[in-house]
Structures are given as C-alpha cells and as structure tokens.
Amino acid sequence: MLRSIFAISLALAASSAVAEPHSPATIGPASGGKPGVTTGPQKPKQLLLISFDGAHDNRLWQRSRAIAKRANAHFTYFLSCTTLIPRERAGSYKAPGKKAGRSNIGFAPTVADVTARLDNVWNAHLEGHEIASHTCGHFDGKDWSRQDWLTEMATFDRVLANAWKDNGLADREPAEWADFVGNNIVGFRAPYLSAPKSLYEAERDHGFRYDASPVTRDPLLPTLEGSVTRFGLPLIPEGPKQRRIVAMDYNLFIRHSAGMDHPSKAAEFEARSYDAFRAAFDKQYEGDRVPLQIGLHFVEMNGGAYWAAMERLVGEVCHKPDVACVTYAEALDLLQKQSGRNPATSSF
C-alpha cells in the first residue's frame, strides 16, 4: 500500500523546479502578540506550516487533531477524495485517461469508514484546521492537460459536496457543509509534487488561492504567479553529512531505509528527523523568519518516527509567543497583511 501511494515521489520531488529566492517582506511594529502579527520593530512571528497529504486513516485524523490541540497549532490536510467513496461505489469515479473505478490509493473500505472520516473533516474545520485538495485518485498528472486537471478538480468538488448524501448520510450533513465546500477549499497540492504548467493554468481557472506543490532549495517566501500563490516545500540539511532533502516524511523514509519499514530503528530515525526539523526551524527563527513548511502523510513509516519528530517539534515551539503554527490559508492571509500588498496584483 505504501509503495502504491507514494512510488516515485522522491524522484519527482528532487526534480521539481526550484524557485528563486525573494527577500522577506518588510514588517511593521509589534501588535499585541496576536497570532501571526509582529512582536518587534523588525521581525514577524515565525510561521510553521505542518501539512498532511492523503488524510485517510481515521486513527491518524484523531491523533493529529489531538497533537494540534495540545500544541496550539492549526494544520492543513490535503485530502484525497476517493477516501470518501466506499469500494462498492468505486465505479462512480473516473480519473482523466483512466478506467472508471481506478485509484492509486484505493477507496474507503466501508460506509462506516467514510462516516468517521467526514466527521473528522468537519470537526477539524470547526477547530480551525484547513481542508485542501490533493485530487482524488492520486495519479501523476505530469502529462495531464489543463482540461484534465480541471476535470479532476471538479470531481473533487462534486465528491466532497455530495459526500454525506451519496453515502446515505443526508440527515447528518452539517447545515454549513455546502458553504464550507464552496468557499473554504482554496489550496492544492499535486500528488507526487508533480506540477506541470498545465496545473497552474487549471488552478487559476478553478479559482484556487494557492498551490503547495513546488520544492525550493531553502525556506522561501511564497511567490505570486497570476492569481495563484506558490508555496515551496524546502530542501533542508539532514543526517550526519547534512545532505539536503525535501522536508517531507516520505523522502526521509526513502533516505533512511530505502522505503522498507524498519520499526526497530524508529528512535534513531526520529532523532535524525527531529534534529533536521529543529535546525531548520531555529535557522529561520533566529534569522529572517521566513515561514517553514514540513509535510507528512497519513502513514506511520518506520514505526512512526516522522510523526513523532513532528509532534516533538510542534510541542516545543508552537506555544512560543513569537511563533504561529498555522494553515497555508492563514499564512497567506498573514503574509499579505504584513507585506501591505494587494494579493491580486503583487508578490511578497
């Protein structure tokens, strides 16, 4: 299952376009210690963005929400919509260029499983977390046309909007669900971080505010391309040789154990990952305070080493008065406010 979900992710991430650096935005005076607002004459709060791709395992939904509550954090969940379709209705989904009922990550095993996931999605939204799109069937869209991407995006919207009704749960659908789906799904991350030009054209036409698919050499401020802001997962130093690696659990999993689970080494891999995460955070916190992004999946690789490293980091830093652990949408709002620029016409 793990390989089928994440195969070739490392190669794609490593070959992704690296954005050019931008200078940090000029920040104004302190403003009472509110989240995301400056705490001094020069430095903004340090933003930490933790995200999860796939968002399928209900046990990990519960765990991540509990971590966030303890740490005073908000997370971004890049949801795959086939997790809202039970296997018995797999044929209702058809990805561009694929046969109906195909999905790289499968489908939900039962309606009960979907019900629990919908409850987690809704409660996470109410708790201040962000739900964003990771398409539906987790296919590599490197060769997709703009229209292919738009088709998959429309399918995601339809599946999410009708998820309660389609699963016989219309009586449980929250009254605000339609508004949530229509107005709150503003971000996108491509499976395998595979982001051709056609994707950005589709994101613009679909109305997404931001994309989180690129990879950058260092933590960088996001860039505005047309109407879509691009956030890049950074390459961060890791391990004894401090070689750079995408700040994402799967990439660490490949480096540490060649994609083979070794739970007996969980403590070693957790320590290495925590050290890399913390060093990357401290560099920004003590420097220009460019937002730091860390990505994970809803899979506990190598005995949960990478989740444990993330949990330790957010537990240590998110309560700091000059740190804000926020969603991508929140970060975008805060950065636009701090820069004093019109988000529709300029970059940071």
Itemize the secondary structure elements and their pairings.
Layout: H1 2-6, H2 9-15, E1 46-54, H3 58-71, E2 76-79, H4 111-126, E3 130-133, H5 146-161, H6 163-166, H7 177-184, E4 187-188, H8 197-206, E5 210-211, E6 215-216, E7 223-225, E8 228-230, E9 233-238, E10 243-246, H9 249-257, H10 266-285, E11 292-297, H11 305-317, E12 323-325, H12 328-339
Parallel strand pairs: 1-2, 1-11, 1-12, 2-3, 4-5, 5-8, 6-9
Antiparallel strand pairs: 7-8, 9-10
Summed up, what is this model?
This protein is an alpha/beta fold and 348 residues long. Helices cover 39% and strands 14% of the residues. The protein contains twelve helices and twelve strands.
What descriptive keywords fit this protein?
348 residues, 14% strand, 39% helix, alpha/beta, four-stranded mixed beta sheet, disordered N terminus
Level-2 CATH architecture: Alpha-Beta Barrel
The overall number of domains is: 1
Task: Enumerate the spans where pLDDT stays under 50 for 5 or more consecutive residues.
Answer: 1-40
CATH superfamily: Glycoside hydrolase/deacetylase
Estimated helix fraction: 25-40%
Strand content range: 5-15%
CATH C-level name: Alpha Beta
Number of strands: 12
DSSP helix count? Answer: 12
Would you mind describing this structure in some detail?
About 40% of the residues lie in helices and about 15% in strands. The protein is of the alpha/beta class. Strand 1 (about 45-55), helix 3 and strand 2 form a beta-alpha-beta unit. The model is unreliable at about 1-40 (pLDDT under 50).
